[in-house]
């Protein structure tokens, strides 16, 4: 058997060879010609025949023997009318059930086992039970791996695969024999090979590392997996590393669905808020427009009166009747009032139109669809835009203070970061609302600064704060402190995924009861893992 074939069995259930060896030892210990393991419901598991005897004849004896149902430690039987010796010990499970027997037989009639032979067979029976328990454990372990979409493996000091669980074929569709002996780095996508090779380099005692990468397949798209590797303790001649490959496809689908749910939740709140924000200026633009239409009619009536009087008095001074008509028209038009109010109505209408235009522009910028690749963006402008979009959530409960230092363009997915900033602003507004804060006391401070190779964004509020015992849970999916119907518990989990996974940054919480909460986001200026 080749080395790769030997390794390919390492993660499988107990091979028949293990029982074969124990059957041989049982025959040798009992000075018998035949040894075998018989399991209840399965019949003959395996048999070992001494040299010089007819294997078929002795195996037939083992097959026909009733010893698989033994409950007594030793039994002497005559087989086929001729004196034969067959005896065995039962295989007892922990709950007392008999699961089989370890048996021996030969062609000579014997009275009984001596004490040494009995002790040897009893010890070997315990070894058989150990093998059976190990077999069950391995079967259970493999079933768990298959259900979880995981593959166990071991590599040598060069990073080549020397052991691989059968779930490899389920995951990749490739035969294990083709993968054994090859470096694991050769089986991942080209973009991940350098990182995987470095990860599989000799680790220190007790060290472990994790990495997200992609496994290539013979056909179809690559499979996203999490690679977890740990150092292999010295002993039993083994060396290298052991690890687990976990299929991330279902997890990615769930994360995407959760992200969509969080965005839909925010979109629902934003839609109502934006509608309200647009409705207010549109209302006074409409009112002013109706006022200007009425003023125009009054002014036109006055103008027509002027013209009529001028036409009739072109050759002579206006008559008393004409002066009375002009005075009545001026009184009806109320020139003093129109002179004061018309410019104000025009100015208010223009201001309302500008507010609506700024909201529409902010929404267009906020909902910008990210390209697949990162691009440089103005983080301060993104924060201003998000504050404008979230104004309806914040304007009644807090004054939003922008403390934005000059920061260089950031290499990022700006659309995803807009969603993160919005979630933090809405959460701060909700916390202030629950505390009963208003514009007189509530405050949300948004700041940016550069710290080394990072841009630091801080969103802080002066609400009631978050209890210390739950601060480490706020980034967990579906955890929320809001009342039922006001939150899904996905906003901060989505924020952490965007900041940590997509941008290689960090998001942390600092909160003190009675003083408020502060979320600090650190983003590498030039993207994950790049130092300038």
Mean pLDDT: 75
Largest sheet: 5 strands, antiparallel
The amount of beta strand, in percent, is 15-25%
How do the SSEs run, as a string of H and E?
HHEEHEEHEEHHHEEEHHHEHHEEHEEHEE
Q: Which CATH architecture of the largest domain is right?
A: 2-Layer Sandwich
- In whole angstroms, how far apart are the ends? 54 Å
- Strand tally is 16
Question: How many domain regions?
Answer: 4
Secondary structural class: alpha+beta
Shape: rod-shaped
Comma- or semicolon-separated keywords:
disordered N terminus; about 45% helix; alpha+beta; five-stranded mixed sheet; about 525 residues; Beta-Lactamase; 4 domains; five-stranded antiparallel sheet
Structure characterization notes:
The protein has a five-stranded antiparallel β-sheet with strand order 6-5-9-8-7. The protein has a five-stranded mixed β-sheet with strand order 11-13-14-16-15. A four-stranded antiparallel β-sheet has the order 2-1-4-3, sandwiched between helices. The radius of gyration is 42 Å and the shape is rod-shaped. It has 532 residues and is an alpha+beta fold. The relative contact order is 0.06. α11 (379-389) packs across α13 and α13 packs antiparallel against α14. Mean pLDDT is 75; it is low at 1-15 and 67-79. It has four domains: 2-143, GAF domain (Beta-Lactamase); 149-247, Beta-Lactamase; 250-367; 371-524, Histidine kinase-like ATPase, C-terminal domain (Heat Shock Protein 90). The protein has helices spanning 3-8, 16-29, 55-64, 115-148, 167-172, 176-179, 193-199, 249-312, 320-333, 335-366, 379-389, 391-394, 414-434, 491-502, and strands spanning 34-39, 43-49, 85-92, 98-106, 150-155, 161-164, 208-215, 223-231, 241-247, 375-377, 399-404, 410-412, 443-451, 454-461, 506-512, 516-524. It contains 14 helices and 16 strands.
């Amino acid at each position: 058997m080749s080395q790769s074939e030997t390794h390919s069995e390492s993660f499988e259930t107990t091979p028949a060879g293990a029982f074969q060896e124990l059957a041989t030892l049982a025959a040798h210990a009992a000075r018998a010609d035949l040894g075998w393991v018989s399991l209840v419901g399965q019949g003959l598991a395996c048999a070992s025949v001494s040299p010089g005897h007819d294997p078929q004849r002795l195996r037939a004896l083992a097959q026909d023997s009733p010893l698989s149902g033994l409950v007594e430690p030793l039994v002497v039987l005559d087989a086929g009318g001729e004196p034969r010796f067959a005896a065995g010990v039962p295989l007892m499970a922990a709950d007392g059930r008999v699961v089989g027997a370890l048996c021996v037989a030969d062609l000579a009639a014997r009275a009984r086992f001596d004490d040494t032979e009995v002790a040897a067979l009893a010890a070997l029976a315990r070894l058989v039970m150990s093998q059976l328990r190990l077999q069950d454990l391995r079967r259970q372990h493999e079933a768990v791996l298959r259900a979880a979409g995981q593959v166990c493996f071991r590599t040598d000091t060069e990073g080549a695969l020397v052991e691989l669980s059968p779930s490899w074929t389920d995951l990749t569709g490739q035969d294990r024999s083709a993968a054994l002996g090859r470096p694991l780095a050769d089986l991942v996508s080209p973009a991940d090979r350098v990182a995987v090779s470095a990860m599989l380099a000799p680790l220190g005692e007790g060290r472990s590392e994790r990495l997200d990468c992609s496994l290539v397949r013979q056909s179809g798209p690559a499979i996203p997996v999490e690679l977890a590797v740990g150092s292999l303790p010295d002993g039993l001649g083994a060396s290298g590393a052991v690890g687990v490959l976990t299929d991330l496809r279902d997890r990615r689908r769930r994360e995407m669905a959760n992200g969509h749910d969080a965005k839909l939740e925010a979109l629902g709140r934003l839609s109502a808020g934006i509608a309200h924000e647009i409705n207010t200026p549109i209302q006074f633009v409409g009112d002013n427009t109706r006022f200007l239409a009425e003023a125009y009619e009054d002014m036109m009536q006055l103008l027509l009166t002027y013209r009529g009087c001028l036409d009739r008095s072109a050759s002579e001074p206006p008559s008393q009747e004409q002066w009375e008509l002009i005075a009545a028209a001026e009184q009806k038009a109320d020139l003093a009032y129109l002179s004061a109010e018309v410019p104000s109505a025009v100015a208010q209408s223009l201001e309302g139109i500008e507010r609506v235009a700024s909201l529409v522009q902010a929404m267009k910028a906020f909902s910008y669809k990210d390209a697949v690749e990162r691009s440089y963006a103005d983080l301060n402008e993104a924060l201003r835009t998000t504050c404008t979009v979230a104004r309806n959530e914040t304007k009644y409960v807090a004054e939003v203070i922008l403390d934005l230092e000059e920061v260089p363009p950031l290499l990022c997915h700006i659309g995803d970061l807009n969603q993160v900033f919005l979630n933090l602003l809405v959460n701060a507004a909700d916390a202030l609302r629950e505390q009963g804060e208003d514009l007189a006391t509530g405050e949300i401070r948004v700041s940016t600064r550069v710290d080394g190779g990072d841009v630091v964004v801080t969103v802080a509020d002066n609400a009631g704060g978050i209890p210390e015992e739950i601060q480490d849970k706020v980034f967990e999916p579906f955890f929320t402190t809001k009342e039922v119907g006001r939150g899904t518990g996905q906003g901060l989990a989505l924020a952490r995924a965007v900041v940590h996974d997509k941008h290689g940054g960090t998001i942390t919480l600092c909160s003190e009861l009675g003083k408020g909460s502060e979320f600090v986001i650190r983003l590498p200026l030039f993207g994950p893992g790049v130092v300038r």
